[in-house]
Each structure stands twice: as structure tokens, then as C-alpha cells.
Amino acid sequence: MDILIAPEVEQALKEMRPVVALESTIISHGLPYPDNISAARQIEQAVRENGSVPATIAVLNGRVLVGLDDAQLDMLASSKEVMKVSRNDLPIAVVRKLHAATTVATTMLIAEKAGIHFFATGGIGGVHRMGYKTFDISADLTEMSRTSVCVVSAGAKAILDLPSTLEYLETMGVPVIGYGTLEFPAFYSRTSGLKLSLSSDDPGEIARFCKSKWTMGLDGGVLIANPIPEESEVPSSTMNHWIEEALEAAEREGIRGKEITPFLLARINAKSHGTSILANISLVLNNARLASQTAVAYSRIPV
Ligand code: PSU
Ligand code: MN
Q1: Residues 232-275: pLDDT tens digits?
Q2: Which of 79, 82, 129 is nearest to 106 (CA)?
Q3: Catalytic positions
Q4: How far is the CA of 94 from the centre of ligand 1 (A)?
Q5: Which of 46, 145, 238, 239 could form a disulfide with 172 if both were Cys (CB 3.0 to 4.6 A apart)?
């Protein structure tokens, strides 16, 4: 794959210094303009303050970029013509020289090719409700089974079937580590009622876990489930109302395929307004800090 790596990122990788990949869908589809541009800058800053170099991943004019400068970040945040690409449609964005935002799956696969092992995001895709019938299961899950990148998330939104999402990850051999918790967090909420079998509150141990998995020859991702900070949590009784409303609207309007997730996210953002956006930014910053600390610890493991 032809990847254009920003000079700062390239230098860090060459010197084996820690780098954290960041996704672009949250900028183009996850948050409204201009909140998105200031959030993108804050997220990069949080990575730096914790010792790693940030590398936001996106496709601009058909070029796969790892690390964006200010002008490129602006273009991504303000352009109305940004396609959402997963593993299946990445090549078409390249061939047609389009702007495209990368999902968790695509960011992971590009990060791995660039030599980056840690990635901070907000929420991952998963098994949709009724997924057992519709087969709507996010490519994020299959990507995690094959691509060796550690993804730091705040769990997944309750727009999904969370128990099935965890079962699917288990089947695909993806370890899920709760950060300081044995419960899978549900994005806006620290709790979901779903138990995890692995927990750690030490970035150093998480780094050693990843190292051990990959040196054993067990390819594939590691999912870190980092609960939203307590002060930013939105009660699930508040969010559930907007989530149910968004799911009904999607059903009524016959939304299908890759449009479903962006539709639900936009609808929830619009209805809940400031509440969900503030929570969203807070949890991504929290994930950026943890991913950066874990990448630093990983870079210090003696070879
Ligand atoms: N869930 C969120 N916020 C997001 C996404 C999911 O809470 O921004 C985005 C991510 O980029 C994720 C993608 O990888 O949606 C999953 O889309 P799909 O369900 O179509 O695989
Ligand atoms: Mn889908």
C-alpha cells in the first residue's frame, strides 16, 4: 500500500519512539464542525502530553496519510464530501482520488502497515441489534481478529447488541481488557452489566500483554475498554431515550448497510445536543492519554 507518512511520525518510528494512531471518522462524521477541529487538536495534544507522537490517519485526494498537518486536519473537518471507508471500500477512495475518513477497521490496518501498534478511538463498531438476522456485524470486529494493533476505546454504544458484540470478539480470539474495571463500559456510561474476564489498571502490564501476544505469534488486535471519566458520564436512562428514538427513525427510514452507524450517531448528537458531544470529547481524550502511556511503556520493554 502506498502510504504517505508525515515527517515527524516517520522520524519517531525510525527511532523506535512511541506513536499513537488516531482515526478520522470521529472528525468528519462523529462531531459537528467546528467542534470537530478543536477536538482533533486537543486529542493530538493529549497524546503528546503523555509522551507519544500522534498520527491521525485519513485519505485526502486519494492519498493514504499517516499524520496530518494543520491544513489537512482543517480540510478533513470542514469538507462536506468525505466518504466513510472500511476495509472493503478503501481502494475505491484511492482510485477515485476522494477524501475519506477511516473507521476503526481501516485505521487499524493502515496503522499496522505503517508500523504503529497503538490506536486511540471513541467507540468501536459491533454486532447491531437484530444482527443475528441481518448479519450487520461491523468490520471493526473481524479486523481486530487479524490486525495486530491495540485499540483503546470506551467500549461500544448501546445502539449495538453489546452482549453479542462481546461474544463475537471472544469467538474471533480478541482479548478485551477492562481498564480498572471488570465490566464492559457502554461509551456514555461506565457500566453495561456485562462482565469481562480480564482487567488491568497498569499501562505497563497492558503493554507487556500485547508484546507477549504478538511475540507468541498470535496475530490480531487487543481491545482496551476504558470507561468514560466519572464526571463526564451521562446516565443510561437519559441516553437510552435518544438511542431508542434513533433506532426507530433508522427503521422507519429504511437505513441500511454502512449508513446505519453514521445515521444513528448524527441523530443522537442532534437530539442530545451538547450533552453527548461533551461526553464524546472527554472519553476520546481519556483514551488518547491511556493509549499514549501504553505506547510509551511498550517502547521501553527491553528487546
Ligand atoms: N461508534 C461510535 N462512534 C463512531 C463510530 C462508531 O460510537 O465514530 C464509527 C467508527 O469509525 C467505527 C465505525 O469504526 O463507526 C463503525 O461503522 P460500521 O458499524 O458501519 O462498521
Ligand atoms: Mn454494518
Answers
A1: 999 888 899 999 999 999 999 999 999 999 999 989 988 987 78
A2: 82
A3: 23, 157
A4: 21
A5: 145
